[in-house]
Specification:
mainly alpha, three-stranded antiparallel β-sheet, single chain
């Protein structure tokens, strides 16, 4: 060996190789994607990890009380869903758009079947809503899958009928039948919060598809009438809404006002910088559903205005990036699916935050990517994975597929 020549260590080279391959794989995965695509994925991953931290902080008290002293039971269940959901998101991101389009009808039928199980002995009532199924220790909320499949099915129908979108019959059959059946099944279970989110999604998709405004106004009137009738059949919801309109009294403090009042206390006590991560007082059995519907209040209490503002900014950035993807994608199916998922996730986040801020009555809507709930998290990540698949560079769009097929037939 020549004097002064560098000494090579094969073992060190082999140790560094796996890390290098991981870096190269990640770079290759996103090298051709647009900045908005990359930012969208980064924001989703940040919200999931940040949400996992807040789940641990907000749930350990109730977790210990309800799980024989196990402070980490709720956190570990949510972490398991994160470990399942993120790989599912990236796997779906590699699916070709034409396969997603073809699977839309079968997916909606599968979601119908699972939602129908709610009304069998497998169904479970929680919080006055019969919207869960349980099999042993496993439980799930089929309506979360129904949201995803309904968006895909609506996009498939509308993208093939854009030239007739101005005609009312396009909105009635088959679109109206599928939408009414989907929302009706959830409404029968009494989950008006989920129904509200689904209605927002439907209106958003048909509006972005180019439906006439007078037809959209007719839809809104019908939805408002049906929503009012459904609320009247649920006395607890009538009390919530009337209390929200009139304000809390001393008699209502211990009942309908408890959650909202203590949510406001939690946010107010956080100030600008918060009381510190893990130091919330509201989660000590003062604020029900602290790790689910009211996790935003715990963020505001522990991390203050800065932490709550960060969550809001993340959802705003997510909305901007997804709107850019909608605007840039030339394929109608991809545009409508991306728009539907955007309206769903951002609309649900706005509703959840509005409830915590007492701008809306309590509706039982979780905060996407952050609240506890395996089926909600898995469905949200799956929807983002589908959006990634429809907007990634190199994917053959539905329009390109059919154009190529026509060219081959010629």
């Amino acid at each position: 060996m020549a004097r002064g020549a560098p000494v090579r260590n094969p073992a060190a080279k082999n140790r560094a190789a796996p890390n290098s391959r991981v870096v190269v794989s990640v770079k290759r995965l996103f090298s051709q994607e647009s900045p908005h695509y990359v930012v969208m994925v980064a924001i989703v991953l940040f919200l999931v990890i940040f949400g996992l931290v807040m789940v641990l902080s907000s749930s350990f008290v109730d977790s210990a009380l309800g799980n024989d002293g196990n402070f980490f039971a709720v956190f570990l269940r949510q972490a398991m869903w994160v470990l399942i959901g993120i790989p599912v998101m990236f796997l779906l991101a590699r699916v070709q758009p034409i396969a997603i389009l073809r699977a839309a009808p079968a997916g909606l039928l599968a979601a119908f079947f699972l939602q129908s199980l709610v009304f069998t002995p497998l169904g479970v009532t929680s919080g006055g809503n019969r919207n869960w199924i349980a099999l042993g220790n496993f439980s799930a909320q089929p309506s979360e899958l129904l949201k995803v499949t309904l968006i895909l099915w609506m996009a498939a129908i509308l993208s093939s009928r854009l030239e007739a979108i101005g005609e009312l019959r396009t909105l009635v059959t088959p679109l109206g039948i599928g939408v009414v059946a989907s929302i009706g099944m959830v409404m029968v279970g009494g989950d008006l919060g989920t129904v509200g989110v689904m209605v927002v999604v439907v209106i958003g998709v048909v509006f972005l598809a180019g439906v006439r405004l007078r037809h959209l106004a007719s839809i809104l009137v019908v939805v408002a009438v049906l929503g009012a009738m459904a609320a009247l059949f649920a006395p607890s919801r009538v009390r919530r809404i009337s209390t929200w309109f009139s304000g809390c009294t001393e008699d209502e403090y211990l009942t309908t006002c408890w959650q909202t009042v203590h949510s406001t206390f939690a946010l107010g006590s956080g100030g600008v910088f918060g009381v510190g991560l893990g130091n919330s007082r509201a989660k000590w059995s003062w604020l029900p559903e602290a790790e689910t519907d009211f996790i935003f209040a715990i963020v505001g209490e522990e991390l203050g205005l800065l932490g709550a503002g960060l969550v809001i900014v993340c959802f705003v950035v997510l909305a901007v990036t997804m709107a850019h993807l909608v605007r840039k994608n030339p394929d109608p199916f991809a545009r409508l699916v991306t728009a539907g998922v955007m309206v769903w996730l951002i609309g649900q986040a706005l509703i959840n935050i509005a409830v915590v801020l007492e701008l809306l009555p309590v509706l039982g809507i979780p905060l996407p990517f952050m609240s506890v709930g395996g089926s909600a998290l898995l469905s949200s990540l799956a929807a983002v994975g589908i959006v990634m698949a429809l907007n990634r560079a190199g994917a053959i769009s539905v329009t390109e597929h059919y154009s190529a097929a026509r060219g081959r037939r010629r």
